[in-house]
Amino acid sequence: MARFIVRRLVGMVLVLFAVSILTFLIFNVIPNGDPAVRMAGKNSTPAQIEQIRKEWHFDESLPQQYLFMMKQIFTGKLVSYSDQTNVWEQIRMGLPRTFALGIGAAILWMTLGIILGLYSAVRAGRFSDRVLTVLALIGISMPVFWVGALMNYYLGYKLEWFPNGGYVEIAQGGIGEWLYHLILPWTALAILFIGVYSRILRSNILDTINDDYVRTARAKGISERRVMTRHVLRNSLIPIVTLWGLDFGLVIAGGAVLTESVFDLQGVGQYFAEAIGRLDVPPVMAVTLLGAVFIVVLNTVVDIVYAVLDPRIRLG
Amino acid sequence: MASTDSAATDFSDDLPAAIAAEERHAPAGTGPWRIALRRLRRNKVALAFGVLFLVLVAVSLAAPIWADEVAHTTPYQNRIADTITIDGEERNIVAFDGVPIGPTWHGEYFLGADRNGRDVMVRLLYGGRNSLLIGIGASIITMVFATLLGLLSGFFGGWLDWIISRCFDVMWAFPVILLGVALGVSLNISGITIGPLSLKSGSLWIPTVIIGIAYVVYLARPIRGQVLALREKEFVEAARAQGMGPWRIMLTELLPNLASTLLVFFPLIVANAILLEAALSFLGAGVQPPEPSWGLMISEGIEFLTSAPHLTIAPGIMLVLTVLALNIFGEGVRDALDPRAKIRLEH
Q1: Which residues of B, range 249-308, sit inside 8 Å of A by Cβ?
Q2: Using CA atoms, how far apart are residues B195 and B144, in angstroms rounded to an integer?
Q3: Which domain holds residue A286?
Q4: Is residue A85 in some structural domain?
Q5: Number of domains in chain A
Q6: Within 10 Å of residue A289's Cβ, how many Cβ atoms?
Q7: Parallel, antiparallel or unpaired: strands B192-194 and B89-92
Q8: Between the CA of residue A26 and those of A32, A84, A213, A274, A294, what are the distances in Å?
Q9: CATH number of the domain residue A179 falls in
Q10: What is the CATH number of the domain that holds B311?
Q11: B285 found inside a domain
Q12: Burial of B88 (0-12, 13-18, 19+ CB in 10 A)
């Protein structure tokens, strides 16, 4: 077990190293104009441009530039090209918002996914099951930014039931305002996953319901309710829980960029979207790396938990 | 006993038994493809949505006809200062306060205008053409590369497998949407030339290639797993004993066995590719203006949501209908070919 974990950790570091190189190359090999010229502005002299080039190490070789940027990242001194703000400070400001969005949505989609999936499986083939199936398929077919924009328009602007986007810190507006501003973003982000999770749980339950141990449980005279919750649901949930870890990582690592932009939550994703619009490489590098860290860490955790839960899994 | 008629999806609560029963009913010697086709043909809902998808494709392909014969305009023509006459009443295409005209339900400006005075219906049809082209093109790229990499890595094993698998690990760790946006924005600034291949800035190939590559790992991994299992089967051993080379074994023995997996994945990948194209265009990294696409039209419309909601609603409905049709048809294909398959793609 210890060897397995060590090997996974080493692999993690190597993957992150590769991701950082790739992201760096995307912006330095594909021609996208000279950052020094962009930073100097329109009315700049060649001397000024040369000065900036030197100051920001643009005149060095690619490996040197890469090392310089990684050093900045790890010492927390990474600075944006366009407005010279510290990238880590910006990310630290956005991260609580992204987490608030991601965690709330993840709880919402897990809860509703389980309730609807279970209900659908129990009523398999009936009218209510069909309606839920159709709704789930519609849910997974809608772009999140479109749903979010329409919610904002109809529920926020027209009916005035909800605020028109924005994020309120708990410290400023209290927990009520915080919740009030997050309900629409949570719902918009969760819709897709509710569809996916309820469908997967439904088919998992229908698969396990015919297993021998379920028949044994029934034969022992255990009530149907208890069979469903204690035997069927418990086993059907394992794949869903692991999936939940992976999806949560993906949402935090960039999946939330669309929702944040539509609702103007000013989280890390929106920071990324705004930075890329200005071709501001340092924030893009930092957010991509951070995202990859989340994905890789959660992947590894899920693998280890899985290996602990199910001893049949070969550690390799 | 569960019934064997499956609707949009498997509604039976005893799937294995249902499948076994169906296979018993088929006359001896009926091939698996024929059984699958029969199952799909009985699935009226899936078929209906498959037809809906074809209709949407046909309508999008007919974009030039509508533009020339009915609307008398192009998707790029700005008529910001013009007026049109509807039911004898002369109206500005774009009002003085910048609000464009809403749906006229006439030939010209059937669905109204956008803020540049362009015909929304015409742009919707041309945008559909672009969205579908990118979605289908990207899925073909995904299929080809995923099959190739999965076959190579699963069949040869060894160092080749090690290298390919490590590349998959890196791709897997990349946040798909961040990768797509970063690539899309940089490529669209001045394009790129790699050997004989040249991507021009603003070309539709840019989002197509990006999306195609982004999904490769999600398909290549399951294919590799399947090849690993197939490699040990007797028929492969027999082929090898007959002196068949590795390439011929891959082409004639393994590929046909992967066909059903590829068929099951294809519509679902197209659906997801269309959604990813919309997301990239929304973030400015996909289709570049003035070229239309559904995602770009939604993104342009959201700014004017309060004054001209039709700009956001119309392309959104087309997009959702297309993706929904593909999802439902795709599930039908999956139920027919491989009812126990568990398929999932990331967005």
Answers
A1: 271, 275, 278-279, 282-285, 295, 298-299, 302, 305-306
A2: 20
A3: 94-315
A4: no
A5: 1
A6: 19
A7: unpaired
A8: 10, 22, 53, 18, 21
A9: 1.10.3720.10
A10: 1.10.3720.10
A11: yes
A12: exposed
Are B46 and B40 within 8 A, CB to CB? yes
**B160 in any annotated domain:** yes
* Cα distance between residue B239 and residue B248, in whole Å: 9
ipTM of the complex: 0.87
Residues of B in contact with A149 (CB under 8 A): 298, 302, 305, 312
Say yes or no for a CB contact (<8 Å) between A134 and B8.
yes
Give pTM, 2 decimals: 0.87
DSSP B37-62: HHHHHH-HHHHHHHHHHHHHHHHHHT
The answer to the question of residue B256 being in a domain is: yes
Asked if the structure places residue A191 within a domain, the reply is yes
Q: Do B342 and A31 touch (CB under 8 A)?
A: no
- The three-state secondary structure class of A58 is coil
Task: Output the DSSP codes for B65-84.
Answer: HIIIIII-S-TT---TT-EE
Look at A257 and B298 and tell me if their CB atoms are within 8 Å: no
In a domain, B255, yes or no: yes
Length of chain B: 347
Q: Which residues of A touch B179 (CB under 8 A)?
A: 288
* HSE toward the beta carbon, residue A245, CA cutoff 13 A: 16
Residue B152 corresponds to which tokens in the numbers above? 């190579």
Strand partners, B85: B90
In the numeric block, which tokens belong to residue A72?
Answer: 């900045």
Which pLDDT tens digits describe chain A residue by residue (316 residues)? 788 788 888 888 888 899 899 888 887 777 666 777 777 777 777 777 777 777 777 777 888 888 888 888 888 888 888 788 888 888 998 899 999 999 999 999 999 999 999 999 888 888 888 899 889 999 999 999 999 999 988 888 878 888 877 788 877 877 888 888 888 999 999 999 999 999 889 888 888 887 888 888 888 888 888 888 888 887 788 778 888 888 888 888 877 899 999 888 889 999 998 888 888 888 888 898 888 888 888 888 887 777 776 666 555 4
Kind and range of the H or E run holding B90: strand B89-92
**Which range marks the domain in which residue B231 is found?**
128-346
How far is the C-alpha of A77 from the C-alpha of A223, rounded, in Å? 62
Number of domains comprising chain B: 1
